[in-house]
Amino acid sequence: MTLSRIFTDKVLSMQPYHVPSSAGMIKLDAMESPYPLPDEMRQALGKMLSMVNVNRYPTPRSVSLAAQIRDKFDLPKGCEVILGNGSDEIIQLILTATMRPDAAVLSPVPSFVMYKQMAEILGMRFVGVDLQADFSVNESDFLAAIEAHQPAVIFLAYPNNPTGGLLDKAFIQQVAAAAPGLVVLDEAYTAYAGSSCAELIADYDNVLLMRTFSKIGLAGIRLGYLAARAELIEQINKVRMPYNVNVLTQATARFMLEQMSFINANVAKIIQEKAELYDWLAAQDKVTVFTTQTNFLLLRVNDADSLFARLRDEYKILVKNLHGYHPVLDNVLRITIGRRKENEKLRQALTAILH
Ligand SMILES: *Cc1c(COP(=O)(O)O)cnc(C)c1O
User: Fold this and answer.
1) Does residue 15 carry a pLDDT above 90?
2) Are 317 and 349 in contact (CB under 8 A)?
3) How far apart are CA 266 and CA 190, in angstroms?
4) pLDDT value for 17
5) Is the peptide bond before 327 cis (omega within 30 degrees of 0)?
6) What's the pLDDT at 80?
7) Which of 130, 171, 181, 336 falls 20 to 30 Å from 20 in CA-CA distance?
8) How far is the centre of ligand 1, averaged over its atoms, from the C-alpha of 190 (Å)?
9) How far is the CA of 175 from the centre of ligand 1 (A)?
């Protein structure tokens, strides 16, 4: 058997998505919430999950969870919601529903890597518009790229990962008006941003809103959602596998949506921890820290590769080394906010390494 005759050139040239081992480490690399569920909540959840009929398939389109999501997250009236196995799957659904041999997918770069990854796996043409050195989008370049490439789909992360900033809303509106295809607003970090573009799905017939439970304490259950006008959701729903979100995930999400005060309190704690870490980092002379609207901070250092390796090897602290991803990320580390003790250990490690 000759692999190269069977698998596509794209697949043969790819590397698998690499997740570094984190056993025994302080994990500040993946934008997870650092807070596990308290014991009582675990027990109530366990009891509830024990009642779920795992012998049955999930209900079609997960209607009751979708309705609860519409309610709790204040989505515009009349929009429809579809669920995915993480927002990763939703990206795949949107692109599967729009792929044509020459269709382009446009987004600023650097941004969330799955936009490009999934577009290319599906044989679409990914076009990235480089961010400027201060991490802002060159708006006229971006609008020119829409004109030149007529993208089937544009992804705008609001706030952006990995740079952490928000686009100007007036610019997003310009993009929506100029786009010949879909505009997906990826609000993975909306809980931390205190700002949303949800209303744009009512104002524009080509805008979709994508969010995830991953950054608010539920990364393990793999649940994302897409909200948009019914006519858009109806088409995207056709390429969804019928039972894509399992019954345990749905039940856990329904349970946790009744615990919004717990979720919101954790978000508030993370924002507070971030402010304290930011102030501390801003007072250090050998690093530059950037403001973000997310649960992570970005740090520019003299030698990111070496600092990353020392944090990992000497202090068992895992952060994300963005050096080498894109020129604007030269010597940049991305640090997810952890628990108070973990952030304190990071400060101690940085103090020891930098002085
Ligand atoms: C984390 C992240 C996602 C993916 O979330 P999942 O729901 O865990 O698949 C999507 N977009 C952005 C910008 C992210 O940072």
Assistant:
1) no
2) yes
3) 14
4) 84
5) no
6) 95
7) 130
8) 11
9) 22
pLDDT in tens, 191-212: 999 899 999 999 999 999 999 9
Mutational test site, ligand 1, from 185, 186, 187, 336, max ligand atoms within 8 Å of CB: 186
- Provide the token pair at 331: 């010597």
Position 162, amino acid = P
Q: Are 150 and 142 in contact (CB under 8 A)?
A: no
Q: Cα angle at 224 between 177 and 48, to 5 degrees?
A: 150
The mean per-residue pLDDT over the stretch 80-108 comes to 97
Would you say the CB of residue 212 lies under 6 angstroms from ligand 1? yes
188 lines ligand 1 (CB under 6 A): yes
Tokens of 26: 């302080």
Specify whether the CB–CB gap between 319 and 335 falls below 8 A.
Answer: yes
The runs of H, that is alpha helices, within 3-38 are 3-6, 9-13
157 Cα to the center of ligand 1, angstroms: 9
**What is the rounded CA–CA span in Å between residue 338 and residue 296?**
9
Mutate to test the pocket of ligand 1, among 32, 82, 85, 87 (most ligand atoms within 8 A of CB): 87
In this structure, what are the phi and psi dihedrals at residue 179, rounded to the nearest 5 degrees? -70, 130
pLDDT greater than 90 at residue 74: no
Q: Say if residues 273 and 340 touch (Cβ distance below 8 Å).
A: yes
Q: Is the pTM of this model over 0.90?
A: yes
Q: Whose CA is nearest to atom 1 of ligand 1?
A: 188
Residue 322: name the closest of 335, 333, 312, 309 by CA: 333
DSSP character string of 49-62: HHTS-TTSPPPGGG
Predicted confidence (pLDDT) per residue in 143-159, tens digit? 999 999 999 999 999 99
Q: What CA–CA distance (Å, rounded) separates 320 from 29? A: 5
| Ligand 1 centroid, distance to 218 Cα (angstroms) | 12
Place of tokens 């992360």: 157
Percent of the chain predicted with pLDDT > 70: 100
